[in-house]
């Protein structure tokens, strides 16, 4: 090393050079870089992405070179490209700095006229090196050669950061890394063959097929290399030998170069490591899933027998281009999209370059899907590189050329950042630094050639660019699929340049989940055909809306519903403005429309609820309505009208709005099922009260009403556990007032009750309002209204066991509160007898339950999946709870409760049955209730039978809040939960 000068000339300060390490000045002195001759060299050093790290590495390199340091020192003064390459790579990669210190003479590789060797030259170099080393020396020798080649590429890649060297194109870097991987695999195959077979055994015929980024020739600096092994000999001995060779290749490559991953082979990690070509073909013809054909888009022979590799590609590629015709193509694609999104924890999604929103996977997935859809009829799309595929899609008119160019630029920018992050320590990563890590962000900005722009420093520019690129990818991800579709229906805009044929448009829509692509195109044409602001806003909105719709269970119905709502609200400026300006509104609306047949009709008549899809200060505005406050509002609004028709119409209007709000919040996962049931009960109670008040006002004679009336809720209404498809089970009780005769009072009250039932039951286009009074004494044959005394007399003499059981859920819901409470006090001795229910009554309940199980299930219904009467369904749970109430409520006051869930909690607290059994019953009730509600939301009408596997079951799963909308998983869970609950039910009813 040079001796420090005795007198330091005027040189840039370490601060101006960007050196902040305390030892920086001493390090410069140790190197002798303290004379006027070193000024230009120091300024080059200052432009390194991390100048301190570069300086420290130079000091270590000088110590490693010892007497040969002077040669490098002189070269750095005269060879400007060498300075750029060396300072650039040392300031970008700690790992390559360590490699240079370990092999200090490798600096010569960066001096002079440096270029990248061809693929053939690399293979020859690596294979020769493999053949010249044996035993334990093979790994370090080939690892050093591989790192030397990485050093050259990285130095050329980052040199422009320091000096004005030519910038290597992204495609050049990816291709060279892939060529380098091919060469490494070829050398690993030589070593593996020699290790397994020895010098005297015939070399097996084995082809190594590159997959993933290596297969596409767009590899990262650090990445697993995905491969598939193919042989042409099925003999047991040859297969065993080939498998050993393949295993040794993977082991050696992992030690010397990179991890080799063979998990993309047939049957994944559970499948054979090596298969014959015929075995591969047979597997893909019969068993392969959609994602496996998508993976084959990147397949390329990389090493081993070239002819066999070519035969593999030729045999399987035709299957790739017909994969979109498979019946499970659409659900597979949707499942893949969901799976990718679920892989990234929400807390790091903004930092994930690969899997985050607007990240690399979004681009790759979109491009590959378009290739699969259109590649069947267009050979120009049969390319493996993402960038090449984007260019081909643009040339073919499947995406706009500007969109293809912009997406390519965003993709290459994100890949550049990925490369820089991996170079630093030669570790596999896709994660950006923490947002508040200024030093790490500054290093990344400099390494990625990001410069200040006058308004922001380099870090600020990088942050803005990341935000812009991520937003552009997210926007173009949707536009890529749908903007050409809009042009194909005759609504081009200035920025469009793609034009799909009608057949291509239908094919693309079908692949995105639309079962009626022709109808979908008709809807798109209608939505975008209007001139002026309305049509322009729809053209801007639709690509994103259609993308969100395609991820719902029924995008066809969703698009039709969106068209109907858009046409209904054509003159409402707030509507399109809300969709355009409130991202949450548009996304939530698409999810609701693509899942439910129940809500769209409500929204057509109560469109103001769409505004509540927006986020408010405390979450979604859908949750800002308080049920009790709504009920008071409905009754008050109805009370402003003297005419009962208008009064009930006002009540219907508010009911419609509230149903739309509750159902929307339910579908969006914002409400628990118990809150939904209470909210729906609150709606029914308010409507009953409003209707009773309206009819009573209109029917009251001049001298005042001859009676007071109370409405007793029964069943789920009494338990505050109504579902979307539930009727209102009620009983009417009256009492004469003002000295009226009982017969007159009953007659008047009966007229009131009949009018309430008739007016509420009148068809209105809304979900039905059926008031069912069949649980009254003597059922349909008995009087609709009785006095309190009449009820008391009937129950004292004639009450049947099933009526006692029904009274367990009786609760006053409307009308005269005092009368209602006196009715409940009267029936308490009947439903909670002081000495408990008799043994004969228990036997009667068991007999009735057995009869219900045998006779009540509808013909053709599946007893395993009928949510009400099926195995472990609602009836099973409710009858079990009610039997326990009848047997124990006389001594446990907590069981005096009309709610099934609250009573279950009391049963558990009283230890009447094991807590585990209570939990099984609770889970079954919640599961069946969610499923029953979801069935109504999806089908738009009351039903209790779960559908079989398919789109509708997926919709029910999503409506029921199942995380990924997978109908099969939802059904498996339903069957498991109800089966376990049925075991408890049988045990209790069998005691």
From TrEMBL:
Gene Ontology process terms (BP): regulation of glutamine family amino acid metabolic process
Residues in Glutamate-ammonia ligase adenylyltransferase repeated domain copies: 120-311, 587-824
Cofactor: Mg(2+)
Keyword field: ATP-binding, Ligase, Magnesium, Multifunctional enzyme, Nucleotide-binding, Nucleotidyltransferase, Transferase
GO terms, molecular function: [glutamate-ammonia-ligase] adenylyltransferase activity; [glutamine synthetase]-adenylyl-L-tyrosine phosphorylase activity; ATP binding; ligase activity; magnesium ion binding
Gene Ontology CC: one annotated term: cytosol
Function as written in the Swiss-Prot or TrEMBL entry: Involved in the regulation of glutamine synthetase GlnA, a key enzyme in the process to assimilate ammonia. When cellular nitrogen levels are high, the C-terminal adenylyl transferase (AT) inactivates GlnA by covalent transfer of an adenylyl group from ATP to specific tyrosine residue of GlnA, thus reducing its activity. Conversely, when nitrogen levels are low, the N-terminal adenylyl removase (AR) activates GlnA by removing the adenylyl group by phosphorolysis, increasing its activity.
Name by which UniProt lists this protein: Bifunctional glutamine synthetase adenylyltransferase/adenylyl-removing enzyme
Organism: Mycolicibacterium arabiense
């Amino acid at each position: 090393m040079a001796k420090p000068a005795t007198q330091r000339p005027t040189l840039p300060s370490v601060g101006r050079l960007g050196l902040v390490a305390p030892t920086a000045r001493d390090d410069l002195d140790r190197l002798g870089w303290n004379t006027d001759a070193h000024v230009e060299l120091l300024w080059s050093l200052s432009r390194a992405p991390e100048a301190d790290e570069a300086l420290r590495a130079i000091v270590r390199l000088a110590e490693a070179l010892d007497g040969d340091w002077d040669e490098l020192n002189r070269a750095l003064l005269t060879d400007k490209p060498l300075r750029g390459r060396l300072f650039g790579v040392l300031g970008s990669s700690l790992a390559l700095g360590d490699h240079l210190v370990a092999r200090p003479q490798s600096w010569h590789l960066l001096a002079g006229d440096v270029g990248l060797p061809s693929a053939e030259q690399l293979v020859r170099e690596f294979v020769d090196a493999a053949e010249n080393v044996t035993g334990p020396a093979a790994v370090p020798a080939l690892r050093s050669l591989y790192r030397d080649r990485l050093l050259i590429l990285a130095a050329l890649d980052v040199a422009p950061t320091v000096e004005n060297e030519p910038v290597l194109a992204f495609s050049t870097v990816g291709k060279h890394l892939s060529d380098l991987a091919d060469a490494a695999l070829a050398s690993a195959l030589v070593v593996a063959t020699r290790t397994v077979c020895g010098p005297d055994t015939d070399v097996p015929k084995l082809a190594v097929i590159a997959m993933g980024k290596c297969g596409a020739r767009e590899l990262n600096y650090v990445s697993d290399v995905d491969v598939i092994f193919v042989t042409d000999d099925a003999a047991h001995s040859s297969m065993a030998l080939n498998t050993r060779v393949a295993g040794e290749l993977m082991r050696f490559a992992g030690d010397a170069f990179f991890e080799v991953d063979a998990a993309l082979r047939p049957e994944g990690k559970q499948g054979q490591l090596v298969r014959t070509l015929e075995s591969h073909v047979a597997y893909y013809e019969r068993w392969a899933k959609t994602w496996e054909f998508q993976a084959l888009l990147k397949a390329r022979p990389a090493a081993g027998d070239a002819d066999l590799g070519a035969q593999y590609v030729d045999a399987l590629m035709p299957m790739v281009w017909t994969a979109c015709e498979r019946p499970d193509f659409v659900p597979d694609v949707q499942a893949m999209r969901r799976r990718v999104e679920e892989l990234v924890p929400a807390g790091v999604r903004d930092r994930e370059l690969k899997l985050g929103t607007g990240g690399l996977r979004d681009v790759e997935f979109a491009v590959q899907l378009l290739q699969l859809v259109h590649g069947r009829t267009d050979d120009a799309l049969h390319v493996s590189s993402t960038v090449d595929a984007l260019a081909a899609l643009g040339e073919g008119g499947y995406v706009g050329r500007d969109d293809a160019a912009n997406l390519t630029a965003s993709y290459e920018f994100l890949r550049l950042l990925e490369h820089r992050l991996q170079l630093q320590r030669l570790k596999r990563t896709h994660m950006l630094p923490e947002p508040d890590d200024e030093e790490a962000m500054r290093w990344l900005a400099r390494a990625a050639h990001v410069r200040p722009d006058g308004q922001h420093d380099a870090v600020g520019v990088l942050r803005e660019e990341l935000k812009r690129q991520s937003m552009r990818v997210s926007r173009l991800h949707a536009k890529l699929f749908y903007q050409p579709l809009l042009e194909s229906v005759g609504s081009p805009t200035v920025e469009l340049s793609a034009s799909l044929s009608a057949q291509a448009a239908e094919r693309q829509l079908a692949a995105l989940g639309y079962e009626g692509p022709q109808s979908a195109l008709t809807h798109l044409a209608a939505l975008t055909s209007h001139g002026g602001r309305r049509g322009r806003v729809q053209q801007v909105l639709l690509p994103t809306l259609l993308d969100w719709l395609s991820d719902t269970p029924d995008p066809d119905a969703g698009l039709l519903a969106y068209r109907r709502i858009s046409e209904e609200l054509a003159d409402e400026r707030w509507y399109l403005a809300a969709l355009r300006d409130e991202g949450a509104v548009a996304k939530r609306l698409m999810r609701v429309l693509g899942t439910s047949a129940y809500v769209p009709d409500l929204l057509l008549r109560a469109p103001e609820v769409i505004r509540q899809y927006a986020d408010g200060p405390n979450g979604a505005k859908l949750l800002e309505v308080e049920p009790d406050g709504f009920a008071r509002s409905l009754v008050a609004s109805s009370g402003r009208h003297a005419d009962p028709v208008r009064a009930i119409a006002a009540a219907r209007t508010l009911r419609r709005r509230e149903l739309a709000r509750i159902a929307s919040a339910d579908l969006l996962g914002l409400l628990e099922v118990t809150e939904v049931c209470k909210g729906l009960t609150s709606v029914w109670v308010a409507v009953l009260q409003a209707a009773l008040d309206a009819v009573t006002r209109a029917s009251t004679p001049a001298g005042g009403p001859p009676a007071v009336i109370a409405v007793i809720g029964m069943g789920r209404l009494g338990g505050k556990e109504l579902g979307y498809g539930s009727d209102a089970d009620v009983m009417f009780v009256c009492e004469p007032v003002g000295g009226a005769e009982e017969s007159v009072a009953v007659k008047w009250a009966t007229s009131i009750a009949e009018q309430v039932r008739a007016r509420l039951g009148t068809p209105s286009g809304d979900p039905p309002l059926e008031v069912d009074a069949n649980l009254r004494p003597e059922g349909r044959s008995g009087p609709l209204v009785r006095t309190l005394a009449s009820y008391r007399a009937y129950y004292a003499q004639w009450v049947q066991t099933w009526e006692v059981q029904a009274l367990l859920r009786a609760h006053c819901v409307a009308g005269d509160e005092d009368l209602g409470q006196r009715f409940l006090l009267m029936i308490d001795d009947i439903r909670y007898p002081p000495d408990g229910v008799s043994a004969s009554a228990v036997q009667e309940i068991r007999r009735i339950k057995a009869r219900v199980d045998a006779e009540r299930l509808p013909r053709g219904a599946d007893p395993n999946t009928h949510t009400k009467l099926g195995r472990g369904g609602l009836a099973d749970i409710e009858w079990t709870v009610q039997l326990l109430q009848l047997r124990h409520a006389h001594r446990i006051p907590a069981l005096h409760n009309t709610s099934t869930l609250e009573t279950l909690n009391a049963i558990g607290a009283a230890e009447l049955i094991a807590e585990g059994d209570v939990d099984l019953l609770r889970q079954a009730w919640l599961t069946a209730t969610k499923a029953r509600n979801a069935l109504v939301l999806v089908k738009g009408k009351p039903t209790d039978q779960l559908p079989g596997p398919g789109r509708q079951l997926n919709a029910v799963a999503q409506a029921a809040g199942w995380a990924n909308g997978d109908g099969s998983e939802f059904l498996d869970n339903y069957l498991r939960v109800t089966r376990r609950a049925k075991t408890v039910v049988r045990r209790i009813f069998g005691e």
